[in-house]
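Re: the 216-residue chain
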Amino acid sequence: MTSALPQEPADGVAGWAADLVDALGAPGAGLFVALENVFPPLPSEIILPLTGFAAGQGVLSLASALFWTTSGSVAGAVVLYWIGALIGRERMYALWARLPLVKTSDLRRTERWFERHGTKAVLLGRLVPIFRSLISVPAGIERMPMPLFITLTTLGSLVWNSVLVLAGYWLGDRWDVVGTYVGLLSKTVLVLVAAAFAGYVAVRVRGRGEARHRRA
């Protein structure tokens, strides 16, 4: 069968994404985005520009591309929300108590922070690679009201999806350039998180060492 998308990728995740768009159109892109939300290693920076490219080629409409990819984002986020809700506060505290170098007070502070800033975290978190998926879990644990969660997720996801879909639409057969820049942004976020975590661990280890020294 001849591909509906000229110059599309032939293998790997990009090839699978192209096959979904070829076979199912915009709903196929929505399915991929839903899976990408549940399994963050699947790259939205591939499927979203590719979907925009497909819209530019007339394979699907730009409106349907934005509707289905945003619907997929919301569907995947709701799955993660319910995973967080099923984990629940008690299980989270039980798991937290088994982790080294952390205190229950740290989790309580995190809860208080989410109570104050949860709406902004869910909305703006959709615009940050990696966290755009993970932010749904604490929202579920804290049982953010579902209508509010869906509204914030829809708005944030629509902005993120629009930027990447429109980039692919305007860049045409150079749609894959988008993935390069978003990939660099994702790596930068991971490096910053790793550095913050390393700093946190170093402070905890130093604090425990000083406490033992004072007792001695």
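Residues 45 and 181 are 9 Å apart (CA to CA).
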